[in-house]
Write a structure and sequence with these properties.
The chain has 473 residues and is mainly α. Helix content is 72%, strand content 4%.
Length: 473
Amino acid sequence: MSPTATTSAPQAADAPLVSARTTIVRRPGRWIDGWDPEDAGFWEAEGRAVARRNLGWSIFAEFLGFIVWQLWSIVVVMLPAAGFTLSSSEMFWLISVPSLVGATLRFPYTFMVAIVGGRNWTIISAALLLIPAVLLGVVVSDPETPFGVLLLVAALGGVGGGNFASSMANITYFFPQREKGWALGLNAAGGNLGTSIAQFTVPIVVTIGAGAALNLPLAGWMWVPLILVAMWGAWRYMDNLSSAKADFAGSIAALREPHLWLVSLLYIGTFGSFIGFASVFPKLIADQFPEFSTFQVGQAAVSLAFLGALVGSLARPYGGRLADRLGGARITVAAFAAMAAGALALVATMPLRSFWVFLLCFLALFAATGMGNGSTYRMIPSIFTARGAAQGAYPGTPEGLRVQRKAAAALGIVSGIGAYGGFVIPQVLNASQLATGEYTSAFLGFVIAYLVLMVITVFAYMIPRNALGRQRI
């Protein structure tokens, strides 16, 4: 098969006259040379359709990655009914260790697209999901499985957490600057929804038709066909871009930027809280209100824990949209204030022992974390642009290009650091329960942390200062 060159199709008679300068070359292995989405004529004639096709399959693969990443959050609460004897602390470790591994894998995953190609890495990263999914189905079939083995299989689920970084890195190469926000927002929201879907469907599948027992191995096996579909779809319909290059220099430069670490701290507070609370929500419901842990609907059991991740996922795009209109720092401050209020409301209403009040407070907390996810992530390019302006590095100049590269690298780094909150949140709750027998101390600690992060955001990004060119972020 020889390389083929394609150019954009002729414009329709009533369409604006936009000429395409880009000529792309297709090589074996679905490699594309010469991709330039900033060429308006090429983008309208051919580029958009190709980019959207890649986006669709990328979302599906990342969606499955989030599912595998968060499977243990719902499986853990079902282990006692399947005959497993585990302490509460051991359950918290099974919940939190996938987030620890997933957050760490986000750093190498960020560079894999440029090294092996976006299509190729989507196939490989989807194939890796088969390992924790299949092993989960194996180890939960025997109640005598040692805790260490369970912990190892749970840790392997972290490969799903790394998918977010590589998926976001891949999609950013396909879209022009003016449409990156929309594309990346869809990609992120589609992935986040995987947590909610897993927590909704797993209890139904493992209980329907099972009688008094549980078909718990299905919690892993049920995703294998979909993972195979994702691998096939990536192989058949996705593309590799030769223009996707690993920017190691940009990453090193970003690591030297103090604001990278500051905004990473804020992202631990927003996204870290979202993924952390999403993973522990099923266990918190089971601990505090065991009678409401699942509801029987016919032969199937349904858990309302999925509502938390669902609300947080749906709120994320609105946080980004409001940040575009009102400023990322303002929305992030409002999100931290709402998160503090939600956590404080949980503490205040716990003595009521009302599940519905508990659920309402948590849904408000999830909505605030979702809004904060979107707004904090939107702050990253704004912060680096402001830093560049303060240093005389304006868009269109060589210095401005270096700032843009640092900002792009920072997006991947911050997403990885923020994901560590998925480990911190469950372990703080675990420590609180071990020390006091309840979770009140942990939530009071979260209130204080959110208020501190809110104050940091105000002083660092809402008050004009020379380091940011006197700009409000």
